[in-house]
Every structure is written in C-alpha cells, then in structure tokens.
Amino acid sequence: MDRDAIEQFCFADLPEDLGRLIFQSIAESDRETGLSCALVSRRVNAWVEPILFREVVIMSDNQLSNLCDRVITDSKSRKSQDFLALHVKSLVLIFGGFGKTWDAALKNALTVLKACSKVDRLALPGYGFRSGDSASGSTTQTFREFVAGANLSPRQLFIGGALFPPDQQHFSCSIFQNVTHLELPCPRLWDRWDWDGLRYLTNLTHLSTFVYRGPVGLNWVSKTVAMSPRHLRVFIFWVGPLSTPPSDEMELIRDGAVDPRVVLGSIGDSHSSVPAHPYTVFLCYEDFTCRKYSLQNDHWDFWTLAEGIVDERLQRNLQVRCLATLYSCHVFNPDYAKKAST
Q1: DSSP state at residue 72
Q2: Average pLDDT of the segment spanning 259-283
Q3: What average pLDDT does the structure give for the chain?
Q4: Which pLDDT tens digit goes with each residue over 225-241?
Q5: CB 49 within 8 A of CB 26
Q6: Three-state DSSP class for 217?
Q7: CB 109, CB 93: distance < 8 Å
Q8: Which of 70, 122, 272, 335 shows its CA 20 to 30 Å from the CA of 192?
Q9: Strand, helix or coil at 283?
Q10: Where are the beta strands (DSSP E) in 145-226?
C-alpha cells in the first residue's frame, strides 16, 4: 500500500465485523488498552465492555461503591439491567469497614451479588465477618441469608465460613450444589463447618483448605479426605507460618502417603522463603489473600500444578503395582511371568 493510500485510510473504511474483531482482540489481550478503546465511541464501547466486565475484581469499599453508583444503580447508565448477570463470569469481592461504613459496604456488596447472579467463579472471603457473631443487624442477616440461599450457583468458589449464619455452616446450602472447585479458608481448626457434608457434593472434584492457626497435621488431613466425595480428584492442604505440621507429618502429607490426591500447598512471603520441592505448590500470601491470581494470571493456576502432581503419583503407583504383580507371578509361576513380559 503506497503512502497516499495509507494517509487517506480511516477506521470507518473497515468492514464493521473486522473492526469489531480488532477491538475485541485488543480488549482480550490487554485490559488497560481495552479500557482506552472503550472511550473511542459508543459503538466500540458496546463491543468491548462485555469483555472488560467478564472479570470483576473489587478490592476496596471505594471500588465497590463506584461499581454500584456508576453501573448498577445509575439511572443514566446505558447498560441493561441484566448486563452484569449476562457478562460477569468471575467476581472477586473483598470489602471491609466499621459501623455505618460496614453497613453501607454490606448493602453495596449485596447489590453487586444480586446483579452478578450468574457468576461462574466467585471469591468471597468475608474477611470482615466473625463466624461466632449472631446476626448483628438486619443488613448482616439479609446478606448472610442471600449467600446461603438459592441465589448463586458458581462452579468455582472461594468462600469464608463466617459469611453464613452460625447455624448454617454446612454444605447443603444451595451455593455449594454446582461447585466443582472449592476453597475454604478456616480461621481455626475445623471452624464450624459440618465437614461430613462434603461427601454429598456430587460435583466436587477439587478441594483446598487453609487453617490460619491450630495444630493441623496428619489426622486432620486424613479426616477431611475421608469425608470428601469419592470422585474428588485433588485436595490441596495449604500451610502457613502459624499452621505448619510437625516436619515428619509434613513429609508424609507432601509425599502423598495419606492419599495420592493430597497435595501440600505452601504460603509464604516469597518463593525464596520456601524450599522448592517437586510435590509442593506455592503462593505468596498476598496472592492467596487477594485471589487476583485465580482470575488474571494463568501461571498461578495452582489447580493445574496440583493435578500434575497427582497424575504423576497415580502413574507411579500403577507402575509399582504392575511390577509387583510381575514379580509375584515370576516367583510363583515363572512361565506365566515370561509370557506376560513378552
């Protein structure tokens, strides 16, 4: 194409479908550039906003308030009422505050959850809640009842037990029924969960737990695995500075002696603070707390890392059993072993 043709070319000359694909590809590959593209025109905005809203990460009360005021409750917003329900697939919702600020944050969080009712991946740690509290007010009670009710059906869920009413920390709550990947941060050993109910989660294939404080160890892991559904594929047992088992027990857990599906997860300040080991997955404490990795960074996909460890163990165990069978046949029936080896 010569210089004159280049100088005369403008975006409007492109077929609309091609222009849409270009802008959507930009939004897919780089969120910051996608946000700039959304300001080009109303048409381009309509193309890229559904992509930009696939993953919503709320890390502060201000972000929470802005989402409510500018997108959900703003009467001047051009978005349809079901825009977030249709397009938000992943939601990280972290908020806090005290007194009136806490009450306002709860109301806004409830508004966001209602608007994103079809979310597929949900991280809702509930750091500001205390599991021992009774419903301290109508807003708290309403929020907890919404979470425990049949309003959300995520496939991947990171959720704190304190979000539930004290008498409803069990896995029969509707929010768990479609879950395949479940992460449970536990402030204390066993917390208040009715762990025996895990076996009834028919879709659950991946489970992880992290006990912040307490004498966690081999017995705790064994009990949890025993209470999990038989079709569970991976169980990640996270340990931190205040919840590290005795060294001999940690080696057994790490090496899969409890169950080949159990993988040891380590949480620290940095990769250099934890000795590398092929059967351990690692996360920085900030990444674990904020959950950003679960949405934005493929290299933090610890589930895939854990699956690789489990698959390697199962393959190794199968090889050991085959060799043991051949050896047994060779000892008791040499002719059979010779045929099997050929």
Answers
A1: I
A2: 71
A3: 78
A4: 889 998 999 999 887 76
A5: no
A6: coil
A7: yes
A8: 122
A9: strand
A10: 156-159, 181-186, 206-211
